[in-house]
Write a structure and sequence with these properties.
Layout lengths: L10 E5 L15 E7 L11 E8 L7 E5 L8 E5 L2 E5 L1 H10 L6 E4 L1 H4 L5 H8 L2 H7 L2 E5 L9 H20 L8 H5 L25 H7 L9 H6 L3 E5 L2 E4 H14 L5 H15 L8 H8 L9 H4 L7 H4 L14 H4 L15
Parallel strand pairs: 1-6, 3-5, 4-7, 4-8, 8-9
Antiparallel strand pairs: 2-3, 2-7, 5-6, 9-10
Helix pairs in contact: 5-7, 5-9, 9-10
């Protein structure tokens, strides 16, 4: 623990006000905000204190990006940004406490705080940068909440996933960090009576011993529309309470269980489908928007427009034809393609997107 802080007391009456970010254009640098979470040792009276600063995307300091479920967005607490009050939701408060170090700063990008959510124009502009923001971060931190009231459940689920990752590594003949989704989909399928199953220290498909894993994969984070883009393009770590596990281990275990028939119930099979789909998404980049909507249409979004906006990062010139978001003055883009571009705009009605 740090020593008693001499930091000034924040002004509990003053509400944080955002400065304006310049609009995105070919002539303007891409500006965004980063949150610096001050350590416990620099906080006053137990308040969680932060700094929020503007940066050019191309010259920003190293940072992490948070992926989490907003949950009930109703403010239930507050933090202090530049010594001014900022209301936050319950789950975001838990995430910030988990992210805060004891004795050093931590720089993160968090959508609810780094974007002025009350400014529709800014929100539309910043969503255009989401792929860049998540691609350029050093790591994505996935916050899945506190986990289960029984503190034995998540450790058991993580143990099953780590054990499975080791089996996959043996079967594929690659170290875990080198395995991709194509390695798993190319493996032979297995019937429940396959002799090789007896050699693995894994529960039978319909055993209650899978319950911890079933609980984990049913957590709300796995159903969010935005998560595909958030964990697809950078290394990711998953936090559940005080525990953590690499995202690749989670995704490869889910994919292997699904393809090998270890999902003992229909419900668990459906829950495994989401992380499997997300893990495969970078390898199928360039499909048409319609194809991506078919694959991700069952994911959830509070704002229906995000069913489209959350997928734009997977589209490119070669695979999606007219559906790519492009700069309006790009001289090498044919006019007939340019007029079909999709650019996030939260002033539009759902039917206009």
């Amino acid at each position: 623990m740090g020593q008693e802080s001499s930091a000034p007391m924040p002004d509990i009456q003053s509400t944080y006000r955002y400065s304006l970010l310049p609009p995105i254009s070919p002539t303007n640098p891409k500006r965004f905000r980063l949150l610096t979470i001050l350590p416990k040792s620099a906080s006053s009276e137990g308040y969680l204190q932060c700094k929020l600063q503007d940066h050019d995307l191309d010259t920003a300091p190293p940072y992490e990006a948070l992926s989490y479920v907003w949950g009930d967005a109703k403010p239930v607490g507050c933090i202090f940004i530049d010594e001014e009050r900022k209301s936050i939701s319950f789950n975001l408060g838990l995430a910030l406490v988990r992210l805060r170090h004891d004795d050093k700063e931590r720089i993160v990008w968090i959508d609810a705080l780094c974007i002025n959510q009350d400014d529709i124009t800014e929100r539309s502009q910043q969503v255009q940068l989401m792929v860049d923001i998540y691609t350029r971060c050093t790591r994505v931190v996935v916050w899945m909440g506190l986990g289960h009231t029984d503190d034995r459940v998540i450790p058991v689920a993580f143990k099953l996933m780590h054990k499975t990752a080791e089996y996959i590594s043996e079967e594929v003949g690659k170290p875990i960090e080198k395995i991709c989704s194509a390695d798993i989909t190319s493996l032979p399928t297995e019937v429940p009576t396959s002799p090789i199953r007896a050699t693995r220290d894994l529960p039978e498909p319909r055993s209650q011993l899978w319950a911890p894993a079933a609980f984990f994969f049913h957590l709300p984070w796995f159903r969010r529309m935005w998560i595909a883009q958030e964990v697809a393009f950078a290394p990711a770590i998953v936090y559940v309470g005080k525990l953590e596990i690499d995202w690749d281990v989670v995704a490869m275990a889910a994919s292997w269980w699904y393809f090998k028939g270890y999902a003992g119930s229909f419900d668990m099979a459906m829950d495994l489908r989401n992380p499997m789909t997300i893990w495969m998404s970078p390898e199928i980049r360039g499909l048409s928007l319609d194809r991506f909507l078919d694959k991700f249409g069952h994911f959830e979004a509070t704002d229906p427009r995000d069913k489209v906006y959350a997928l734009l990062g997977f589209l490119d010139d070669e695979g999606n034809g007219d559906n790519i978001a492009i700069e309006t003055n790009a001289p090498d883009i044919p006019i007939e393609k340019e007029k079909h571009r999709i650019i996030p705009d939260y002033t539009k009605e759902v039917w206009e997107v």
